[in-house]
Specification:
The complex is a heterodimer. Chain A is mostly helical. Chain A has a domain of 199 residues: MetI-like fold (Orthogonal Bundle). Chain A has twelve helices and no strands. Chain A is flat and about 75 Å long. Chain B is 42% helix and 17% strand. By secondary structure, chain B is of the alpha/beta class. In chain B, strands 6-7-8-3-9-10 form a six-stranded mixed β-sheet, with helices on both faces. In chain B, strands 1-2 form a two-stranded antiparallel ribbon. Chain B has ten helices and ten strands. In chain B, helix 5 packs parallel to helix 6. Chain B folds into two domains: 175 residues, Rossmann fold (3-Layer(aba) Sandwich), CATH 3.40.50; 65 residues, no CATH class. Classes of the chains: A mainly alpha, B alpha/beta. Chains A and B meet through helix 9 and helix 10 of A and strand 6 and helix 3 of B.
Chain lengths: 287, 260
């Protein structure tokens, strides 16, 4: 039976099987045989965009609930050129990203050594275990009132909140990395003459890097959610504060734009971290 | 070696093991699972302290792991974040040897184990057999007086395994290092061991010792022919029967319900 090779575009869109999957007979339950389905994704996006266009054109929805497409575009241009309430758009974005990066940085700075100590010493494990295990299930947002009481609502307070959010994630990741080292590797290093310090530096640390990276990725994601929420509560700059203030002025278009930017940046952070992970710890999962 | 169990009982993992290994000897240790082979090797390596008795290398009493006793593990003991060359050079680097010396040494060792040109390759890109070649080279880089091998070829497929047996013998001959090799493959133990120690379980003890000609013969002869020789087959059947007997006994002790 003569069969034409499916084109690469058709496979990418999910309209055809690649030559390997085409020969499979038991497809249901075989995750590898599920087509990409991109053609449907494209159709859905096109449908939503078309719906928005039509709704704007014929005024199906009150602008109070959902902004018309033309006005939203104009608002975006205005935000990008004039800023929001005398603060440029990039500054709102920048300050939110800066808060997250600072919080995660200090969280990692304290959390990684703490997690290592907990994985390697019974004293550190005993001392910090109750605190870490108790703080682990507490959502960072629940700390906001306490942080406001202690530190007020200035920049330091937000950084401390994000630091705490990142700290426990990083501690647990580093602890898992340090205690997850295969004993054969440690024994091999000892019998190659390595000292305890060398085993920490050359075996336990690199062995824990993939876990630490996963921790960083999680911490970034959690902190991004936390920063937006913290800015909703108390801030005059940042994406969260922008959409909160815009709400007070009933600027639904600014609110929608803010939400989309928050989504795009959150996704961008995730992509960047995955890229960095592939570059920096290519041995992940290959031990 | 007696392990105390939580709850008051104890397991007699090893009992009165006396083993005198001459320099340059290749000793293979064979026994059914649970006979304490790995416990014995861990005591020799210095990772476990015996509850009675002592281990000596020359005049030195073993008190912990050390670079003069190299180890080769079954698998998963390579450092996957390092390249092949960095893995092989790990020991000398930890000892603070000069870079040029390490590089020359690594180069020579890679050639010896048939991995020339693979120095820059990440170890996780190598096949199982090549990874064990790296493990052997890494161990040799420290010039150990004794090499302890814990099922070094256990995770390899049968064909690769046979090839690697030849490599182990060649390295043994070229370096003159003492080797203690633990295996659960009867054929491998017979083929590689100049001396074969068969262990019995509960408590772990030495059941029987053999002096075997096959490893010496293999240095000059054809491996397949040696393994097919009448003498080899006869010894193999004898040892197999002995180990089968032990397994049966274990099953009997447990009322035939549990696996050993």
């Amino acid at each position: 039976m003569e069969r034409r090779e499916p084109s690469a575009v058709a496979v990418w869109l999910g309209l055809a099987d690649d030559p390997f999957n085409r020969q499979k007979t038991a497809r249901f339950g075989d995750a590898g045989a599920v087509r990409s389905g991109r053609v449907w994704s494209i159709l859905v996006l096109a449908f939503l965009l078309g719906l928005w266009l039509l709704a704007s054109r014929f005024g199906w929805i009150e602008p109070f609930y959902w902004p018309p497409i033309g006005a939203t575009w104009q608002r975006l241009v205005k935000l990008a050129t004039e800023g929001f309430r005398n603060v440029p758009l990039w500054e709102h974005v920048g300050i939110s990203v800066y808060r997250v990066l600072t919080g995660v940085f200090f969280g990692a700075l304290v959390g990684i050594p703490l997690g290592f100590a907990m994985g390697l010493s019974s004293f550190a494990r005993g001392v910090f275990d109750p605190i870490v295990e108790f703080m682990r299930p507490v959502p960072p947002l629940a700390l906001i009132p306490l942080i406001i009481l202690w530190f007020g609502i200035d920049e330091t307070a937000k950084i401390i909140l994000l630091f705490l959010a990142a700290l426990f994630i990083m501690t647990i990741a580093a602890r898992a990395g340090a205690s997850g080292v295969r004993i054969a590797k440690v024994h091999a290093a000892y019998s190659l003459g390595a000292s305890r310090g060398q085993i920490l530096r050359h075996v336990i640390l690199p062995n824990a890097l993939p876990e630490i990276f996963t921790g960083l990725r999680t911490a970034m994601g959690v902190c991004w959610g936390t920063v937006v929420a913290a800015e909703l509560v108390a801030a005059d700059r940042g994406l969260g504060s922008m959409i909160m203030i815009a709400k007070n002025f009933l600027q639904t278009d600014t609110v929608v734009i803010g939400i989309v930017i928050i989504g795009i940046i959150g996704y961008g952070i995730e992509l960047l971290m995955r890229f960095a992970e592939r570059r920096l710890v290519p041995w992940k999962g290959k031990g | 070696m007696v392990y105390a169990l939580p709850g008051g009982g104890s397991v007699h993992a090893l009992e009165r093991i006396t083993l005198d290994i001459a320099p340059g000897e290749l000793v293979s240790v064979l026994g059914p699972s649970g006979c304490g082979k790995t416990t014995l090797l861990n005591i020799l390596a210095g990772f476990l302290a015996p509850t009675g008795g002592e281990v000596r290398v020359g005049a030195e009493v073993v008190r912990g792991p050390g670079a003069e006793r190299g180890m080769v593990f079954q698998q998963g003991a390579l450092f996957e974040w390092l390249s092949v060359a960095e893995n092989v050079g790990f020991g000398p680097r930890m000892a603070g040897r000069p870079k040029a010396e390490i590089a020359a040494r690594v180069e020579a060792l890679l050639r010896r184990v048939g991995l020339s040109g693979f120095g820059a390759t990440p170890v996780y890109q190598l096949s199982g057999g090549m990874q064990q070649r790296v493990a052997l080279a890494r161990c040799l880089a420290n010039d150990p007086a004794v090499i302890l091998m814990d099922e070094p070829l256990g995770a390899l497929d049968a064909l690769t395994r046979e090839k690697m047996q030849g490599l182990v013998l060649r390295l043994w001959q070229e370096t003159g290092t003492t080797i203690v090799l633990i295996t659960h493959s009867v054929e491998e133990a017979l083929f590689l061991g100049e001396r074969l120690v068969v262990m019995a379980p509960r408590p772990g003890r030495i059941e029987k010792e053999y002096r075997l000609p096959f490893s010496r013969e293999a240095l000059t002869g054809e491996a397949r022919a040696i393994k097919a020789s009448a003498e080899f087959v006869r010894t193999r059947e004898e040892v197999l029967a002995m180990i089968w007997g032990m397994e049966e006994e274990i099953m009997g002790h447990e009322g035939g319900s549990g696996a050993a």
